[in-house]
Hints:
This protein is of the alpha+beta class and about 650 residues long. It contains 23 helices and 24 strands. The chain is about 40% helix and about 20% strand. The strands form 4 sheets. Strands 2, 3, 4, 5, 6, 7, 8, 9 and 10 form a 9-stranded mixed beta sheet that branches. It has a 6-stranded mixed beta sheet with strand order 16-18-17-19-20-24. Mean pLDDT is about 85; it is low at about 1-25, about 130-140 and about 655-658.
Amino acid sequence: MTTKSTIKAAKPTRGKKNASDSISLQKGKKEMAELQNQYTEDSIRSLDWREHIRLRPGMYIGKLGDGSSMDDGIYILLKEVVDNCIDEYTMGFGKRVDIFVKEGKVTVRDYGRGIPLGKVVDVVSKINTGAKYDSKAFQKSVGLNGVGTKAVNALSSYFKVAAYRDGKMKVAEFEKGNLVKEHKETDTTEPNGTFVTFTPDDTVFRNYHFINEYIENQILNYCFLNAGLLLHFNGRNYVSKNGLLDLLNRKTNPEALRYPIVHLKGEDIEIALTHTGDYGEDIYSFVNGQHTTQGGTHQAAFREAFVKVVRDFFKKDYDATDIRQSICAAIAVRVQEPVFESQTKTKLGSQYVFEGGPSMKAFVLEFMAKELDNYLHKNPSVAEALKKRIEQSERERKELSGIRKLANERAKKANLHNRKLRDCRIHLNAEPPAKNKEEFIQKQLESTIFITEGDSASGSITKSRNVESQAVFSLRGKPLNCYGLTKKVVYENEEFNLLQHALNIEEGMDGLRYNNIVIATDADVDGMHIRMLIMAFFLQFFPDLVKNGHVYILETPLFRVRNKQKTFYCYTDEERRKAIAELGGKPEITRFKGLGEISPEEFAQFIGEDMRKEPVLLSHDGQIQKLLEYYMGKNTPDRQKNIIENLRVEKDLVEELA
Length: 658
């Protein structure tokens, strides 16, 4: 991962205002209020498509971000372009897509039919223009509202589209949505298809950087949902032969599976499922090739149908949580004219599979009642393993019930005045209002909880945070090492219990209150150890938080370099050297040892729009229990050797350079 380095200059401080300044200020405020109260024809303004997208980007791509989160805007831009390539493949045109991402520039080439040459400019610059309004042309496509590539165009500092069709080509170039050059139609030897290249506008996506792991995950999802499609990304080929079966093979550890993955396919529906030894539910849902990270009607239908089929098969009224505990599953459906709850298409809202057709609930239940029931009858060993897993979950739940009740009573009392939690106003699980719904959803995606160590660090963050969307949870010293412990410890340990209640994840991820969980510890040995302990807690008991990209490490500046005119905050040695060179002379250099040393006024700059946070990523072959055993288990010769071989000694050169 490469991060675009920047040096941030502090805002200049202002001196005291005198009496005449105060009178002028009051007069100015009065005049402004009078202007604001005027409502005339001049108050009404019409925006063109480009202006509206740039003014309200959240309505089109969700949150902006800098690329550190998997749902940040730059990945949505890439997805919008690739979605069109996938739609071509789905319709039977083109079996390969080339994707290149380098130094912030994205290039995508498909080998479908190519945009009709006379409509190349319109398709990427006129809102509500496209071929997907006619369901005959694109029966079950992802992009149906004619907005996607227009948003990419408007939010890119440079955008180029080329269409190749039957030996002819047409090229158009744009800057921030404005057409700067429309090339004449010419002959070409290129095979049919469409070529798009764009550079996200860094005035919109400040300090952005692409994380290849996020892009790779997007590409793999496309492969799993479109068996046989070849995607070429930065020199590597990605292809899937077995669809969702390959997805679950990648997402699970074969040694931890309770039974072989069950793979079921039907018309417009595909399901793969198994049970593992991890806590929680791990369900991946897709519609028309789109990964619905927030679920929707199809995922809810699957969860309900699975419980009903299992109960009917075993003729036992098992608790739903016991049936779904430790499940790892994927469901993909094809829906005509899908309805999503936002432009970013992360949650399906369609109640019916097609107009006049069955409800989503009935469609999924009918398929599973037949196919899964048949599979369990034909594979009695799988049925027996499933039964044992359910009954194990039932025993564990009952063992926990006593202490869970006492712990929850304590938590309820503590929640009335939870000294550890300084909450915010907007939460991820809140129901969006009808008015300004898109803006509210964007704020939900920005909802953040900082997990800090000690009162000094939490004090600075609490005073400088945005109370609308940022909460703070303060730990007392080092938390417990959770490796090898059962979930009983979550209820026995007061801090862990209060933390799971603050996050609202006791019953699963559906109620998660914050989209971003940011671990904010000192950048010293103790701080690093606390980070490891918190990550071990999440990986042991709530791995979905990490798998779904909710957990981050807060990056704070290591140095402050300043003279009487300017102040720079530096996150790396390289930034420090650049700051020293720019200021010249002998600037004052401060090395921040801990978060508590940073004043609230300064801290506000580090957790605002330009906040830097490092995502906690789990590689596709990262088997959680093996990972925890190696790093958090008993000290082994292998771990000692790894520490010795990777030992780094930090030399404090501040005094030498000051």
